């Protein structure tokens, strides 16, 4: 479930607002998205995957955390924007990162070509 929009990292691009399939976010008065309907979050991670600034944290659970997460601790642990890195998008992307989410594609590094 979406738990955090980092005001310090957000660049007000509204990508999260655009890609959220259930309309969880509203654009705030200052341009920074706000979590307006947290209960509607499907924990699909689309917002975190598309955020170019790694400003979002989606907890891999269907219910809100009992207390708001500590942004500094999330950043230090690598969890802030971690899903994006895990799937090979954005900062930290390395050749072959796509192998983490599926088999090597024909003609790509690591592919077996006969």
Automatic annotation (TrEMBL):
Q: Which GO terms describe its molecular function?
A: 4 iron, 4 sulfur cluster binding; metal ion binding
Q: Does the keyword Heme apply?
A: no
Per its UniProt entry, which superkingdom is the organism in? Answer: Bacteria
Q: Tell me yes or no: is Transcription among this UniProt entry's keywords.
A: no
Q: Which Gene3D superfamilies match?
A: 3.30.70.20
Annotated membrane-spanning segments are none
Q: Which Pfam families match?
A: Fer4_9
Official protein name in the record? 4Fe-4S ferredoxin
Keywords, alphabetical: 4Fe-4S, Iron, Iron-sulfur, Metal-binding
Return the PANTHER family for the record.
Answer: ADENYLYLSULFATE REDUCTASE, BETA SUBUNIT, FERREDOXIN III
Q: Report domain 4Fe-4S ferredoxin-type positions.
A: 1-30, 31-61
């Amino acid at each position: 479930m979406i738990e955090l929009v980092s005001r310090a990292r957000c660049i007000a691009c509204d990508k999260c607002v655009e890609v959220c399939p259930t309309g969880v976010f509203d654009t705030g008065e200052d341009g920074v998205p706000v979590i307006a309907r947290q209960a509607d979050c499907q924990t699909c991670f689309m917002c975190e995957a598309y955020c170019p600034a790694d400003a979002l944290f989606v907890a891999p659970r269907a219910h809100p955390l009992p207390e708001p997460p500590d942004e500094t601790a999330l950043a230090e642990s690598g969890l802030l924007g971690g899903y994006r890195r895990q799937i090979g998008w954005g900062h930290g992307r390395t050749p072959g990162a796509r192998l983490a989410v599926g088999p090597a594609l024909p003609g790509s590094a690591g592919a077996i070509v006969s």
